[in-house]
Amino acid sequence: MLTEQVLQNLMQAATMMWQGMLGIFVVIGLIALIVYLLSKTGGTA
Amino acid sequence: MEFLWEGILAVTWKQLVMYCVGGALIWLAIKKNYEPALLLPMGFGAILVNLPMSGVIDQIAQGVGTTHGIIQWLFETGIGVSEAFPLLLFIGIGAMIDFGPLLSNPKMFLFGAAAQFGIFLTIIVATLLGFDIRDAASIGIIGAADGPTSILVSQVLRSGYMGAIAVAAYSYMALVPIIQPMAIRLVTTKKERAMRMPYTPGNVSKRMRILFPILVSVIAGLVAPASVSLVGFLMFGNLIRECGVLNRLAATAQNELANLVTLLLGLTISFSMHAEQFVTWQTLMILCLGLFAFVFDTIGGVLFAKLLNLFCKNKVNPMIGAAGISAFPMSARVVEKMGIQEDNQNHLLMHAVGANVSGQIASVVAGGVILGFFL
After folding, report:
1. Distance (Å) from the C-alpha of residue A21 to the closest C-alpha of chain B?
2. What angle do CA B46, B47, B50 make, to 5 degrees?
3. How many other C-beta atoms lie within 10 A of the C-beta of residue B75?
4. Contacts with B, A 10-39, CB within 8 Å
């Protein structure tokens, strides 16, 4: 049975899912972009 | 003479179960070589804390008051108050990682992010099974495939299931060579697994290697402030390694520090393996959810690689996505082995290592992001 508490937790978990994955991709994407730009500007030997 | 029998008569059936659990962990560590540095101290500690009136945990003695136990003190000091043990371990881990394969191919960063999908799906499933949202988040983080992160998140969120979470996290990390091939085969074809990827080794400059840990700490700290302790300590260890002027400290962090903290962490975490807390249906559910998290991390990574292939000119072997979990280097080895099984000239190791070390960063970022929802 989906009680009101479980539903509330479920909504919170769903929010965590999309916001969390977005957050991870933003952080990792930014790092990747900076590493890429650094390598293009003489970061690699 | 009564005192001779007092202890034996005080043993409960749940404590007997914990002796078996402890014995099983020790057996897995010695016989199967599954994460022995952690499973053996955890198994032995599980036996120690579950002995009746055990002297390793605080006891109230008649006429004496409270007597303090060493494992409880270690837990309260090293994990409970400061989360010091898992964080110190991150310095050692950071000092061990060579980010070179990742820095020479920044595209691999994305697979580390994608392979955290199982964490969040598991949180949803755990809430459906009736776990409180904090416990569900702590259970989901088993999917980070990163023991210290799992311990730290479950401690900060005050989850009552830390013992089960730690056991699941370390056991499944050791079982990656069994779990991942099964999950990869579920979502890939033989043709996809045989896909070759040429590797052109690129030299990474010292400047880049030194800037990298600083940049990662700052970016992660600005976007997900709760991840600063996790990412910061990991990257501090890496900075010591790469700076070139602290070789003695880097060697100490990689060896003495990491070994000492691992030794204490395993023993200390056993405090959360009290029979009353551990021998429950929830523990079995957590073990199942941990497996679920690992499987869907793998599937998430593979499916993301397939999605990327729809838009990219240079195709990626979808198995590389599976290496985006944090279990290093087991996951990269699994991908290399599976690639060779399909085509004996199909060497994917260096690409997989890149995705694998990206997973190490992404998993601590994931831990910080999850903590950010509650802090």
Report:
1. 7
2. 85
3. 24
4. 10, 12-14, 16-17, 19-21, 23-36, 38-39
Alpha carbon of B120: minimum distance to chain A alpha carbons (Å): 5
Q: What is the ipTM of this complex?
A: 0.90
Compare CB distances from A9 to B136, B204, B215 and report the shortest one's residue: B136
> Can you read off the two tokens belonging to residue B354?
């890149």
User: In A, which residues are within 8 Å of B219 by CB distance?
Assistant: 27, 30-31, 34
Chain pair A-B, CB pairs under 8 angstroms: 122
SS3 for B265-299 is: HHHHHHHHCCHHHHCCHHHHHHHHHHHHHHHHHHH
Tens-digit pLDDT string for chain B (375 aa): 777 787 788 889 999 999 999 999 999 999 988 888 888 998 999 999 999 888 888 887 777 788 888 999 998 888 888 788 888 999 999 999 898 888 988 889 999 999 999 999 999 999 999 999 999 999 999 988 888 889 889 989 999 898 889 888 888 877 888 899 999 999 999 999 988 888 777 788 888 899 999 999 999 888 888 888 888 999 999 999 999 899 999 999 999 999 999 989 888 888 888 888 888 899 999 999 999 999 999 999 999 999 999 998 888 999 999 999 988 888 899 999 999 998 888 888 989 999 999 999 999 999 999 998 987
Q: B369 to chain A: which residues are within 8 Å by CB?
A: 20, 23-24, 27
- pTM confidence score: 0.87
Cβ B369 vs Cβ B226: under 8 Å: yes
Question: Inter-chain contact A43–B121, Cβ cutoff 8 Å?
Answer: no
